Every structure is written in C-alpha cells, then in structure tokens.
Amino acid sequence: MELSEQFFYDHLDQIIDNTYQVLVQNKEIEDILHDDARVHMFLFDPYKGFKTEEHELDIYDILIEHYEDVEMYERCQKLLESKNLLNEIQRLPNENYK
C-alpha cells in the first residue's frame, strides 16, 4: 500500500509525536502500533535505529530543531536528556576495554 504525500503531511504532527514518545521512552513502539487511534508511523525505521541516512544529524537533533521552531522547549530538554543518556550508555562498554 502506497501512502500519499498528502496523508503524510495531514498526519505529520502525530508522526512526530509518535517518534518523540519512543525516543523519550514514554511509550514503546509496540504501544503505538497497537493503538488504533494513532497513525502507525515514525520518522525513523524502528528496526534500523535512530540515525537517518539522508542527514548528518540524528533523529534527536531533527526533533529538537522542530520543537525549537514551535517553541516547545520542554520537549527539547527531554530529548536532549534522552540523547545524552543514550550516548553515555553507548560509551560505557568501550571504556571498559581501554
């Protein structure tokens, strides 16, 4: 099933919110996929991770920029905290081998 560009733009706010909810660990991907009231789409491929191929920025940075533009600074802060925590967790195993 091919999605129209119009469908995507009509539901963009919810797609962005779905992505935000997963990144800040408010919801699991499965929670969103099982919620019939939500669009079952994200701004990243849940099976490939949070980095985007088209951008040098990761999905956290993309969402932070979006929420800065719409002046939702609490969400920016929560995303930044989640991103920093993820980066810290990813560095831990490497430090054990130094």
Describe the model.
There is one protein chain. With 98 residues, the chain is mostly helical. The protein has one domain. The protein is 59% helix and 0% strand. The protein has 5 helices and no strands. Helix 4 packs antiparallel against helix 5. The model has no long low-confidence stretch (mean pLDDT 84).
Overview features:
0% strand, mainly alpha, globular, 59% helix
Overall mean pLDDT stands at 84
Whole-number total of structural domains: 1
Secondary structural class: mainly alpha
Give the helix proportion (percent range).
Answer: 55-70%
The main pleated sheet reads as:
none
Query: How far is the first residue's CA from the last residue's CA?
Result: 49 Å
Low-confidence stretches: none
Total strand count, please?
0
The coarse overall form would be globular
Percent strand:
under 5%
- Helix count equals 5
Cα-based radius of gyration, to the nearest Å: 15 Å
Order of helices and strands: HHHHH
Summarize the model shown.
This protein has 98 residues and is mainly α. The chain has 5 helices and no strands.
Architecture blueprint of SSEs:
Elements lengths: L4 H6 L1 H12 L5 H5 L25 H11 L3 H24 L2
